[in-house]
Every structure is written in C-alpha cells, then in structure tokens.
Amino acid sequence: MRSLDELILWHCCELAWEHQSLALPNPSVCAIVVSANGEILGTGVHIIAGSPHAEVLAIQKAYYTLTKDEQILSCQSSESIHQYLLASHQNLFTQCSLYVSLEPCNHQGKTPPCATLIAHLKFAKVCIAISESHTLATGGLSYLLSQKINAFILPSPKIAHYAKSLLLPFDTLRTKGRFVLFKLAQRLDGSYKNGRISSQDSQSFTHNQRSVCNYICISGATLRADNPQLNARYATYPYNNTATPQVLVFSRTLRALPAPNPALHNRVQFCENTHILRELQGFVIVEGGFAFLHNIREEIDMFLLLESPHCIQNEENHLGFDECFSLLHQAHIGKDIVLWLK
C-alpha cells in the first residue's frame, strides 16, 4: 500500500504532465502545499518559462487559502510573490508540508531561488520526488538541510521513475540541444484524415505547444492534403496566440508541391532530407501521419497521440508497419485520450 507521501507526489507528477513541454526550455514541475491535518492548501505548476516556479505558485495559493488576503493574488511576478510572502507569512507554514516533483532550484535565474523562500518560511517537511541533475539549478536540497529544514528525496522507485519520465523533454533538450516531439491525432477507429479530429481543448493544448516551440515540421503529403496554417491561433493565455514558428516541409518531390498557405509566408523551408532534424536547435514539433512517423522514427524523442472517441465510415487505415512504444503517461484533454509515448 502506498504511503501518503507517495500518493501526493504521484498526484504532483500527474498535474505536471497536464502541462508537459509547455515550460520548455524549463522542466514541467508541480508542487503541493499540505496542512498538518492533510488538507491540500495550494497547488502550483510551472507552465511557461520565465513565470513563477511551481513551489512559488503553490505557496501563493496556500497563503491565500489560510489568510484570504487577496493582495497576494495580485502579485504576478516571482519576485513580487517572494517579497510579499517574506514580509507577510507570519509563520503560517511551520506546520505545513511541501511536496515537489523536482528538487527546488537554488540559483538566481529569471526568478529567485525557490530553496531560499522555502527555508525562510520554515516548512515542517519538504518531500521531493527526484533530485535536480542540472548543475546550474542543483543544491536546493543541501541548502534546505543546512537551514534545518526536514527535506528529503522520497525513497520510492516508482515515484522516481515517474518523475524522471516527466523530465524527458527537458533532459533531452539540455543534453542534445533539441527535443523532437511527433504529434498525431486520430479517431477511435485509427483514422486520421478527412476533417477536424481533436476537441477544442486538445487543439488549445497543441497550439500552446506551437506558441513555445521553435519549429513545426510536416510532410509534403500534409501540405498537399491540408495546406495548413501552422500557427498558434487557438493558444490560450499566458501562451502567445500570435506566435508563428518556423516551418519545415519534408518531401522527395519538391517540384510537385503546391504553393503554401499565405499564412506561412516567409517562414517555410523545403527539405528533401529529414536528417536536417539533427541540426535543429530547440523544441521541434513534427505533425503528420503514421507513414511519416515510420520514416523519421530515428529522429523522434517522444510521440504524442491524441485519440478522439469517435469513428467515421469508409475510412481505410493501413499502417503497413509495426512499431512498439513505451507508455510514459496517459490522461484526458477534454473528450480526447492523450498518450505520451517513447
């Protein structure tokens, strides 16, 4: 039977997965503040690079839960939240526990170090799923221990494995200089052509991804069939719905391709060889069908499959190849089933 610490950290990871890849080049992280009697006082997820970290957001919400002080909610930047909490905390958290899916950072970057804030607030316990491997941000646990905070990495192989898989996009981008995600939306019968497939919620999520990615890649077949806009028009705040990432179109028959959608003006590059993917830097999204996935599978780091729970008539689906994936996480976005695969 799992302990309460394991259950809460598992929930941390699940909440972080809901925003997977959206904080790149930062990791997806979740934090939860729990009272002495086990009540969840606040949760926070780091959702976009440069914004407050998960720990800060969770503590901000917990402070409001305990005080009903609406002024804390008007603080938007990490610096302003830090300053307000340091000046106003009144030792409210000395009996509370903080759960984090990743070791709190211990450096001054775009935001102040989370470990310093946690130590000043004197949490009774800080339970962490996995240690930070990035040398720039590591040291949070050691700092908390030096400040006499009861902080520790939970000794649970299952939690460690789940939390580690959550960091795959971040670790891949950091070590390789790029993270390549293949995205495909299909219906329950396996078909993925002829009209809109994903729900509005799924579209918003994938357009949020587009708003923070560096490149979108498609095949010539997709250009011929759909001539898509490949923008982020359905992105939701705080993501930029006017973002227009660079587009790469892969085709062996470049001369046979139609003129691209005017919305792609000045941001399209046509390529015959998919090996150029190895030269790209940053967050790369590849959108297409199973044949395209099969052709470039060696270049792909993760596969995001969005499955809509409906079928259509007279749609033939012949994959023509066998592939085997490891399931990292499954969830729902709106009515759709979401599978994150490696």
TrEMBL record:
The keyword Translocase does not apply. One of its GO terms (molecular function) is diaminohydroxyphosphoribosylaminopyrimidine deaminase activity. It comes from the Bacteria. Gene3D superfamilies: Cytidine Deaminase, domain 2, Dihydrofolate Reductase, subunit A. GO terms for biological process: riboflavin biosynthetic process. Pathway: Cofactor biosynthesis; riboflavin biosynthesis; 5-amino-6-(D-ribitylamino)uracil from GTP: step 2/4; Cofactor biosynthesis; riboflavin biosynthesis; 5-amino-6-(D-ribitylamino)uracil from GTP: step 3/4. Keywords: Hydrolase, Multifunctional enzyme, Oxidoreductase. Pfam families: dCMP_cyt_deam_1 (PF00383), RibD_C (PF01872). Its EC number is 1.1.1.193, 3.5.4.26. Residues 5-143 form the CMP/dCMP-type deaminase domain. In the N-terminal section; belongs to the cytidine and deoxycytidylate deaminase family. Converts 2,5-diamino-6-(ribosylamino)-4(3h)-pyrimidinone 5'-phosphate into 5-amino-6-(ribosylamino)-2,4(1h,3h)-pyrimidinedione 5'-phosphate. This is Riboflavin biosynthesis protein RibD. It comes from Helicobacter japonicus. The gene is ribD.
